[in-house]
Amino acid sequence: MDMLVMETHDIQDRLDYKRGKKREEQLRYTDVHVLERERGLSIKAAPMSLVLQNTKSKSHLFNILDTPGHVNFADEVAASLRLVDGVVLVVDVVEGVQVNTEQIIKHAVLEDLPLTLVVNKMDRLILELKLPPSDAYFKIKHVIEEVNTVIENTIPGRGESRRVSPEKGNVAFACSSMRWCFTIQSFAKMYSDFYPGPSKLPGFGVPMKGLDIDKFAMRLWGDIFYNPGSRKFSRKRQEEGSQRSFVHWILEPVYKIYSHTLSQSPDDLKDTLEALGIRLKPSEYKADAKELMRLVCQQYFGPALGFVDMVLQHVPSPEEGAQRLLQKHYTGPLDTKTAEAMQKCDQNGPLVIHITKLFNATDAKSFTALGRVMSGTATWPQSVRVLGEGYTIEDEEDMVVATVSDTWIAQSRYNIPVSGVPAGNWVLLGGVDNSIVKTATIVATKLPEEEDAYIFKPIRHFFESVFKVAVEPINPSELPKMLDGLRKINKSYPLITTKVEESGEHVVLGTGELYMDCVLHDLRRLYADMEIKVSDPVTRFCETVVEMSAIKCYASTPNKKNKLTMIAEPLDPGIAEDIEAGKVNIKDPVRVVGKFFEENYGYDLLASRNIWAFGPDDMGPNILQNDTLPSEVDSKILRSVRDTLRQGFSWATREGPLCEEPIRNTKFRLTDVDLASEAIFRGGGQIIPTSRRACYSSFLMASPRLMEPVYSCSMIGPADTKSSLYTVLARRRGHVLQDGPIAGTPLYNVRGLIPVIDSFGFETDLRVHTQGQVSLSLVFDRWSIVPGDPLDKDITTRPLEPATAQQLARDFVLKTRRRKGLAEDVTISKFLEPELFRSLKESGVLDG
């Protein structure tokens, strides 16, 4: 981004030796948060609108979101992907594809977003690894193939059309610190521009006569060889002295530029540069090596025209992008006038804006909303309807009318006020943030022909918030101030979750230690401006079952006129993941849902057509299935309580019976019902809590277990640190999955798994044991069953002593219940009918 900013903003003087700052320091233009400047890493996505020129000198408006690279802030990436029409993936040529890079590629591919690749930090091949050009080619090729492998694994059989390759024009090569970037097509044009007539290239002795740029570019990658002696290309290395064309025409000139600039005396360098048409001021030859190298590269490579051409060629127009966005994420029909206006990006159509991100104002008291204008024109002052994530046609509670007070074009460090922003562009809105929590859909107060308003789906993040701390003010009288601060961090961070436990404890959930550190900094210094106490970090858990319920469990309504019978059992492997990935939608027609389960999991027709709900929400990893027989149950009466049964199921799966953590990977089968014939006796007040109790009792009789989140960890360091990595990981219940060298480097990449609850302080521990030589990435990977039975009362844990493997589940449940202010142990009799409980005790199924 700094390179593009430097090309479009007149800020060169700020980089001079001013106020003691050296010119080689990074501009970091889009890092505006105080922690971003202090720590040297991006925390927030930063929007910018830039006018960039292509190789034909035609200007184009680019809307760009510069997203954080650290894996903890992947929520910013997910929020950004909803607004864009394409992705430019920047990969370090030395380190290659890492865990966070893999997740971003997968998410972009599943969103059907075109992917372009920038292989960055090319100078590391020359200055750090000191690879010869021929070896550098293989290193670059290896990085590109790593990206293609992830794409192919994400969409098996369909990855070929999404491949990235320099020949296709969707791969660029760059060194952002030296501010240069090119594609093989733009490099071919450089030859054409430098030597338009029959002249000779320095050092090659090849005459350039009427160069066909496109044909030349197609020969600059892959297994195509060039022989300077015969001046011929071939697909096989047939002659001595021939080498790959990419090495000969691109890498060797780049290597020569670096070697001459860094090794020659000023007088010799001046002659060399002038032969290339590069002219520097006499004072600039006296600059330090980095600055001199940057000046030379800027003149040699010129502006990033190849990058602009690449994006223009492979990223679709806003109109094409809008059609993809509507098909994937719009909840309304696509044949209405409003939908048609959105597909055409009609600036005269009804106003619709998709909001995905909130940015705090300079005073941190209010927020501005970043969104994409889907149709119409955003102006101010303008009265609009703000539709929240919970808005539906049937329930309009999550809707408020607000007035747009300002419209801006976001430029990261500053905003440009404008009178209106037409469809197809991004806009920053003021005055509409009060009712927005994460995302929203803004529509005109009146749509054509009294059409119903529909929303865009909430963002589904590819990571989960599993890192949890409790907060409280040091001064109790400042509790209202802290609550206001918690509401603001909930708006500011897309994946942050705040809630209040039954004990009154205020809990904050995030993705990891660094993420939570930034959140708490903003809470203390930016939004609440107060001192707070923070508990030791813990983690979220989930509850599940490993067997089918030992008996059919029934529950009667409080008025004793209705009875529900259920069985709980584990879901088939893969179903929970498919539901969460959106591969099946419970709102689809029954036939569509049924077909998915028949084809993928072998469900019979009756079972597949009677899946009533996923829980706790429409993409939740649990199933409610109607397993009653039409011959035994009045179907009409059963349908009348279907919605209330679902609500009870949703309530139960949101807070399980073990420690009020969400239930996961469980199917609840409704096997029998006995319902009152009069509707007044089977209302929601009777059915909902009874449905919940039936779910709980069947769950507790199905060998319940606790699940914990597990991180996938990627550790990169020298080979001699491997033994330390294994030791530190094993001490924390972790294990290594694979390890191997990073091609072309002295580094090793060790990948493994570690439970989140044992990962606190892991990075510090790792750095201490390896003298800071290892970098670590932790990514949420899966849910894993905790060893041991959480209901085994024979297990006793002692204070200040670590629990053994078989004590862990019991230990976690007891501590979680205490922390939440619940009773010491799970009381099964609370959920079972008295007569059922007595019979189970007498038969020995339950202990006394």
Describe this structure in words.
This protein is an alpha+beta fold. The chain folds into four domains: 85-312, Yeast translation eEF2 (G' domain) (Alpha-Beta Complex), CATH 3.90.1430; 319-450, Translation factors (Elongation Factor Tu (Ef-tu), domain 3, Beta Barrel); 468-536, Alpha-Beta Plaits; 539-703 and 789-848, Ribosomal Protein S5, domain 2 (2-Layer Sandwich). 32% of the residues lie in helices and 24% in strands. The protein contains 26 helices and 36 strands. A hairpin with a 2-residue loop joins strand 17 (406-411) and strand 18 (414-417). Helix 3 packs parallel to helix 4, helix 6 crosses helix 9 and helix 9 (245-263) crosses helix 11 (289-301). The longest helix has 22 residues, at 133-154. It starts with a helix and ends in a 5-residue tail after the last helix.
